[in-house]
Amino acid sequence: MENIKEAKNVYAALLEMLTDNNFHFEKDDENLSVKITMSGHDIGMDFKLEIDAERQLVVYTSLLPFKFKEDSIVAGAIAVCLINFSLADGSFDLDIRDGELSFKLTSSYMDSLLSKDALNYMFAMACMIVDRYNDRLVLVNEGLLNPFEVVEE
Amino acid sequence: MPTEQNATGARKVFDAFCEYLDEHAWKYNKDAQQLTISLNAKGDDLVIPVRISFDENLHIILLLSPMPFDVPEDMRKPMAVAVTAANLCIVDGSFDYNVENGNILYRITSSYRDGAFSKESLEYLLMCACVTTDKYNDKFKDIVDRKVSTDEMQKIIFNKED
User: Fold this and answer.
1) CATH class of segment(s) A2-149
2) What is chain B's pLDDT, residue by residue, as a tens digit (162 residues)?
3) Which of A47, A113, A153, B82 suits A26 as a labelling partner, its CA being 20 to 30 A distant?
């Protein structure tokens, strides 16, 4: 019961942050989650922002709009590992069974309250990271970029 | 650039973390200038080193647990697939793997922006680091020691066998 109350408070702060920033989003109050699409430099980015009441986590995920081909999976795994090693926060997840690729960034709010600033920082960071690497991961998938070069400027 | 206010926030969280560790009789080393903490936890199989730091620009607590072994050169590419499989099964944090030099470490972060943290949050981060590293370090070591192939390890990871 206490977990749900706390989760709803964080969810309310999340909605307030998105509204304050004039984002257009679709909310699901029952599941304490929000869907939002952002335009990036190259590829549009779909995000799901949700509150995991059981684990007391804020979880931001972005499912990338393409899957890695079977014969590109090893290259994809190498690229994802190198990108993740360069990140201070968040990580890309590649499902090697079907090539599905997503980005995830989480923060615990256990017995605390994440401020709108913290929620905003998380979202800005997630958008920046996905925008920076989504097109490069497309190129790795197509065999047009050496995975070892994926984090080079 | 870190500002004086940022540094104060980081120090507050650093002090709170040290207080938590003292309350729970953890043995640790700290650097009060660099605001870093290091400790070793005892795992089922391997020692679990944990390095805690505070990013003053991003306002995040960062816990890193490096594996006490490196991946040999001839196994580095297939290990990328095993690490990627493990990450899919983790709810919070991730294994970071430098394919170029064979280092693997577990990373978990949390925002402390605006001082929104509790000792329960700090405990959660430390437990995540220890439990997750403990669950997977022997699996990665078994691959490095060639006791199991990366393909076999993927089956173990996705079948959630321990």
Assistant:
1) alpha beta
2) 556 666 668 898 999 999 999 999 999 999 999 999 999 999 888 899 999 999 888 888 999 999 999 999 999 999 999 999 999 999 899 999 999 999 999 999 988 876 667 888 899 999 999 999 999 999 999 999 999 888 888 888 887 644
3) A113
The C-alpha angle B113, A123, B2, rounded to 5 degrees, equals: 40
Q: Is B159 buried (19+), middle (13-18) or exposed (0-12) by CB count in 10 A?
A: exposed
Give domain limits for chain A.
Answer: 2-149
- The DSSP 8-state label assigned to residue A71 in this structure reads G
Q: Which of B79, B68, B72 is nearest to B106 (CA)?
A: B68
Global pTM?
0.91
A9 is written with which tokens? 């408070």
Query: Is B4-158 a CATH 3.30.1460.70 domain?
Result: yes
Q: What is the phi/psi pair of residue B48, to 5°?
A: -115, 100
Q: Can you state the angle between helices B76-88 and A73-86, rounded to 10 degrees?
A: 70
Contact across the interface for B121 and A109, Cβ inside 8 Å: yes
Interface touch A82/B118, C-beta < 8 Å: no
Using DSSP bridges, classify how beta strands B103-111 and A45-52 pair: parallel, antiparallel or unpaired. unpaired
Of B88, B100, B111, the CB nearest to A93: B88
Per-residue pLDDT tens over the stretch A61-107: 999 999 999 999 999 999 999 999 999 899 999 999 999 999 999 98
Which CA distances in Å does B81 have to A79, A83, A141, A149, B147? 10, 14, 15, 18, 17
